[in-house]
Design a protein that fits this description.
This protein is α/β, with parallel strands linked by helices. The chain is built from 17 helices and eleven strands. Helix 2 packs across helix 3 and helix 9 (335-352) packs across helix 13 (431-437). The longest helix has 32 residues, at 154-185. The termini are close together. Residues 1-37, 39-56, 61-65, 223-240, 275-279 and 300-312 have low confidence and may be disordered.
Length: 524
């Protein structure tokens, strides 16, 4: 279950306590300001005693449905007007309803209502023509089966399809033209994510081509100051664009988003922009938390030189560079079922063990003094922090020790009752209340303190991705013995495997295995 020491309220600091060894970790990497570089960023902002920066209230990214409503209206109008070429004896309510339904479903499945780069109605004509013809054929077959008197002839079918295609094309041309004009005159504030010349090149490109509707206000670069300036002269486009602030910490991104109303984040050259094989998923999740639409442009969005892998129209590019939009993660399938399982198990368990909780609280109070529970800041889903509850098993020397001490399992200051609680994992029992509150789930990646989340995200690729799912009291890593002072890399691998292959039955199995392991406790 838990791996961190039972200490007092934690505050993140800038360095590790002396003598602390973290198994499975590489050397720490920090910027000149003592903060973690963005190439290894966690979705949780860094916090310290002097600069406590929290995530703003989550903003919703403009929904694809809302952005596609004008196009949907154009398609519906085309479907209605196309029936005017039919005789009065062939028009029927079923015909109109079937056409509108079929066209909507087929176009939505093809992604014709999704946000994208600059589009043209001409590029969409083949996709529209195929789907309109399929919709008319399906409608004709339905009418022939249900209402033979209204059956369509081949001539009527082709005339209706052609009319609908013509009207839909004109309507979409108007919508796309209006969007291009709006984007040119009212561009969205954007952050360009990329190192060195790549970031500056794309910032200059968006400035030179306002038709893409982006106004760069900063460059997010996981590099040091020397690296950012070393290749300025080698970039012919850099002088064409005024100097932009280079953001290297979460705090700087936070301020840029709030002060400039940033709505778009453009990752240039895909994951290659981060270098060293770093995982950009943490930054993508962070921008989604801010409500920013996220785009991958260049090598990471479909390969260099060849066509994009996204299968979009040829017009979907940024000055010849392939691009695709990364939509914010929607609610995972089964999220409601997982939450119901948490409540159905946690509520009766909390009632059943209330005598045990009372006995533990009395033992801690009588043998270790006041302060039965301690509250510690931990990082939960999407990098948001919450207050985790535990029975106190050790009173730390100071806040610095509480924030940076990795394990207190063998600390000589721990009393016999503290050793018993940790060995039996009963110090974790108050976290059932965290589950009922919705801070945690019964099963999920174990939450860690902000200090260690930032540190592990630097040294272990994929660690930040663990925050895609609610954190838990137990998890797949824990039932495989990865508790306490064990490999962080192994834990990350198990946690991400659990998230990628989640099922409700797997949660049940992990809960059962955890309950069985309590019979032969190993402690933390």
């Amino acid at each position: 279950m838990g791996s961190a020491g039972s200490a007092g309220p934690a505050r993140s600091t800038g360095h590790l306590a002396k003598g602390v060894r973290l198994r499975g970790r590489g050397p720490a990497t920090v910027t000149a300001t003592g903060r973690p570089p963005l190439g290894f960023v966690s979705v949780a902002p860094r916090r310290d005693a002097t600069d406590r920066v929290a995530l703003p209230p989550r903003r919703r990214t403009a929904a694809p449905l809302r952005l596609g409503l004008p196009l949907l209206a154009a398609d519906w109008a085309a479907a209605l007007l196309s029936t005017t070429v039919l005789g009065s004896g062939q028009r029927h309510t079923v015909l109109v309803a079937q056409l509108m339904l079929c066209v909507t479903v087929l176009n939505a499945y093809a992604g014709l209502y999704r946000p994208s780069g600059p589009r043209t109605a001409l590029a969409e004509l083949p996709a529209l023509a195929a789907r309109i013809l399929v919709a008319w054929c399906a409608t004709a077959a339905l009418l022939a089966a249900l209402l033979p008197a209204y059956a369509l002839s081949l001539t009527a079918l082709l005339a209706g399809s052609a009319t609908q295609l013509l009207v839909a094309g004109c309507g979409r041309a108007v919508v796309h033209g209006h969007r291009r004009r709006t984007a040119r005159h009212r561009p969205s504030s954007a952050l360009v994510v990329g190192t060195g010349a790549a970031g500056r090149r794309f910032a200059a490109l968006f400035a030179r081509h306002p038709e893409y509707g982006l106004r760069p206000v900063g460059i997010v670069a996981p590099t040091t100051g020397d690296e950012r300036t070393s290749d300025t002269d080698a970039d012919p486009l850099a002088p064409a664009f005024p100097a932009l602030p280079v953001l290297t910490t979460i705090e700087e991104i936070h301020r840029a988003v709030i002060q400039n109303g940033v709505q778009q984040a453009v990752f240039v050259d895909g994951p290659a922009a981060f270098g060293g094989g770093a995982d950009p998923s943490g930054l993508v999740s962070l921008f989604h938390e801010y409500g920013c639409a996220t785009w991958f442009v260049g090598g990471g969005s479909g390969g260099s030189g060849g066509g994009g892998s996204g299968g979009g129209p040829m017009s979907q590019h940024v000055w010849g560079f392939t691009c695709h939009r990364v939509d914010p993660p929607t609610a995972r399938r089964g999220t409601l079922a997982k939450r119901l399982l948490d409540i159905a198990v946690a509520a009766p368990v909390l009632l059943a063990i209330s005598p045990v909780l009372l006995a533990c609280a009395l033992a801690v109070r009588l043998l270790d003094g006041p302060g039965v529970l301690f509250r510690q800041e931990r990082v939960g889903q999407h990098g948001r922090t919450f207050t985790l509850l535990k029975f106190r098993t050790l009173r730390p020397a100071d806040d610095h020790e509480a924030a940076t001490r990795w394990s207190v399992a063998n600390d000589r200051r721990m009393s016999p009752v503290g050793h018993l609680l940790r060995r039996t994992s009963m110090d974790e029992l108050p976290q059932i209340w965290n589950v009922l509150r919705g801070d945690m789930s019964l099963v999920g990646p174990r939450p860690e303190r902000p200090f260690f989340v930032a540190d592990f995200s630097k040294t272990h690729a994929g660690y930040a991705a663990r925050h895609r799912m609610p954190v838990g009291i137990t998890g797949l890593a824990q039932v495989h013995g990865l508790r306490g002072d064990t490999s962080i890399e192994d834990r990350s691998r198990f946690d991400n495997h659990y998230i990628d292959h989640w099922s409700l039955w797997q949660d049940v199995c992990i809960i059962i295995r955890t309950a069985l392991s309590l019979v032969r406790p190993a402690g933390s």
